[in-house]
């Protein structure tokens, strides 16, 4: 005889999430508070807790959260047949994707879903209110995104630095938020790069020198100081600490931070739902002069820019590329750079994304042949 549905043993996932935006908005529901609520609910309703899945600091519009994906993997492996959250917004703030999980994916896998504060429990059938709650949750995310963006633009207009890390050669001022101080331990690296450039060295040559002389990269320095990017550097060969790229050197040589100016809003997310970065037109940048002490003089910086410009868009035979600066990468918005393939009997020119090969945040390697253009 078939057993009643309510005698099923529910192997339960407790899913907890809190984003930085939630904290900025003063939203109650810390990870600890969520844990206490979910544990108590599971105990009172006879749910067998298999594991907790915690995404702390992850936006609800992003469903590529590591613990969320681990929970999905466990559902696929048959370990989980019940998911409990504090409310629907903890599951997500993208109403389309949240609805796909609650109305399509979970039912198709035989997974019971419970959102405690929203009185959603799929054992009782579909919730007519849930789709509307999902829309409201997305609206909340949209409004929060607008408020955060407006606050950031105000800070940009004042020239404040609010990146996760200070640029190479600087440290964050502990006494003044958003202000940069020269780092006496690393300023020499910036000075060395500009000195080589002003004496005629190109980016490729400078990169080789930095590698040969074992000058540590910005990423390695952040790993040593803050433990960041451990997935890249922990246990890596010693050479990884000095693995400079041409793109890194070019970026430093063009960075006005080193003459005491602050430039912000160079790139932004596609939308509050899509965190992929796209480059913004220069007229939308925020440029504030003399916000901190310079490492490089204006004279040296301008001389380096002139040297860079004299090399730009010139092939070895001296001709100028007619598409230079005109074609952009459809994915990241950066300019396509010219290159040549001379490895076969029929060499050809091509354009490729100039952001490819930029280390931690590189774009993919896609290109178009010059003769096709």
TrEMBL record:
Record GO terms (molecular function): DNA binding; DNA strand exchange activity
Superkingdom to which the source organism belongs: Bacteria
Domain Resolvase/invertase-type recombinase catalytic: 11-163
Pfam families, per database record: Recombinase, Resolvase, Zn_ribbon_recom
Name used for this protein in its record: Recombinase
Originating organism: Faecalibacterium prausnitzii
Residue span(s) of domain Recombinase: 167-314
Residues forming coiled coils: none
């Amino acid at each position: 005889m078939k057993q009643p549905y309510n005698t099923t043993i529910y192997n339960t996932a407790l899913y907890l999430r809190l984003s930085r935006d939630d904290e900025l908005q003063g939203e109650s529901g810390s990870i600890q508070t969520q844990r206490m609520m979910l544990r108590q609910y599971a105990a009172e309703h006879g749910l067998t807790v298999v594991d907790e899945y915690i995404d702390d600091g992850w936006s609800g519009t992003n469903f590529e959260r590591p613990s969320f994906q681990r929970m999905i993997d466990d559902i696929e492996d048959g370990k989980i047949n019940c998911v409990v959250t504090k409310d629907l917004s903890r599951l997500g703030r993208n109403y389309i994707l949240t609805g796909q999980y609650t109305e399509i994916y979970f039912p198709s896998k035989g997974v019971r879903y419970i959102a405690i504060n929203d009185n959603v429990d799929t054992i009782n059938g579909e919730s007519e209110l849930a789709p509307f709650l999902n829309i409201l949750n997305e609206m909340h995310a949209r409004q929060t995104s607008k408020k955060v963006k407006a606050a950031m633009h105000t800070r940009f207009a004042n020239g404040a630095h609010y990146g996760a890390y200070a640029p190479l050669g600087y440290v964050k001022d502990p006494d003044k938020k958003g202000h940069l101080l020269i780092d006496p331990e690393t300023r020499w690296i910036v000075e060395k790069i500009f000195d080589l450039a002003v004496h005629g060295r190109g980016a490729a040559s400078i990169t080789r020198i930095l590698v040969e002389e074992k000058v540590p990269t910005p990423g390695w320095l952040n790993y040593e100081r803050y433990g960041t990017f451990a997935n890249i550097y922990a246990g890596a060969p010693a050479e990884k600490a000095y693995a400079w790229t041409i793109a890194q050197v070019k970026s430093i040589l063009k960075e006005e931070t080193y003459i005491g100016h602050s430039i912000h809003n160079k790139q932004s997310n596609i939308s509050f739902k899509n965190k992929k970065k796209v480059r913004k037109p220069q007229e939308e940048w925020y440029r504030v002069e003399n916000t901190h002490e310079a490492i490089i003089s204006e004279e040296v910086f301008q001389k380096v820019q002139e040297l860079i410009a004299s090399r730009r868009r010139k092939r070895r035979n001296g001709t100028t590329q007619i598409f230079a600066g005109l074609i952009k990468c459809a994915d990241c918005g950066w300019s396509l750079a010219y290159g040549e393939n001379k490895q076969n009997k029929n060499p050809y020119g091509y354009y490729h994304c100039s952001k490819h090969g930029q280390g931690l945040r590189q774009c993919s390697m896609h290109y178009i042949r010059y003769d096709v253009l």
